[in-house]
Amino acid sequence: MPDIVTQDSSLIFDLMFVDGDTRTQKLKNPKATITEQEISELNEFIQANNLVVGDKYGATFGRINKVTRRNETVTKLDIN
Amino acid sequence: MSTSLSIKGKTSGGDGITTTINYVNPNATNEQLQSLASAFNNLTTNTISDVTRIDKNSLTESSKLSRNITFIDASTRQTLTTINAADISVGVPADESEFGLGITYAGIADSDTIYIKFTTDYNSENMLSTTSTLFYAASGGNPAYFAMYMAKADSTGTVDVSEITVYLPETDTYAAATATITIE
Q1: What is the pTM of this model?
Q2: ipTM of this complex prediction, to 2 decimal places
Q3: Which residues of A lie closer than 8 Å to B, measured between beta carbons?
Q4: DSSP alpha helices (H): ranges in chain A?
Q5: CA distance to partner chain B, nearest, from residue A52 (Å)
Q6: Which residues contact A57 (CB under 8 A, 6 or more apart)?
């Protein structure tokens, strides 16, 4: 059988907290086009409603610091 | 401390998918959490069928490591220390597709890059990237801490991690081996 090749795409969010610490959030299958405004609106929504907190005591959310689109090609080799 | 959301749905191809949103405020209302789940999901091509709040207290210890954790100097490949498997446990929630493993090791600087290799009996495509950047800097004698999340395609609730190898950057100033394992 031939090798099986799949394409995986994900968004990696860098969530920054007020103490400077960052945590990562990953979303699979992002849309082909994501605008800066969409990220900004998500950021404002999270901040306005205090929906994100850190996993350390008293870790207050600061902002979405960075968003990275990661595209990976995964090849399952046919070894038989 | 934060909680998590489990978003179940389907990909554009019709396959089932579960997405976990971490670091969620446990005091948020269910309505707010539903909105948060939708806000994140709207950036994807997935559809939503269910959103569940995951209470950290619901984590159950369902797997113990069968091997030790080995810390290796990335430049010399020399083994720095080994944590006994008997002192390590990894909890996996029964209905979740992701779990977190936190490892602390005194002496890591915030600019260091840590490479972690997980060896399990799961297909490698179910694993997240095996590299992670240190998120928390060591200060005042407190150990550095970072968290790593692994995703697996199914949700049987058990993961047998046979080996965890942490590759530490080149340095000769590591503190004594006092690594501890915490469950995220």
Answers
A1: 0.51
A2: 0.87
A3: 6, 8, 11, 15, 21-31, 34, 38, 42, 45-46, 49-55, 57, 61, 74, 76
A4: 36-49
A5: 5
A6: B1
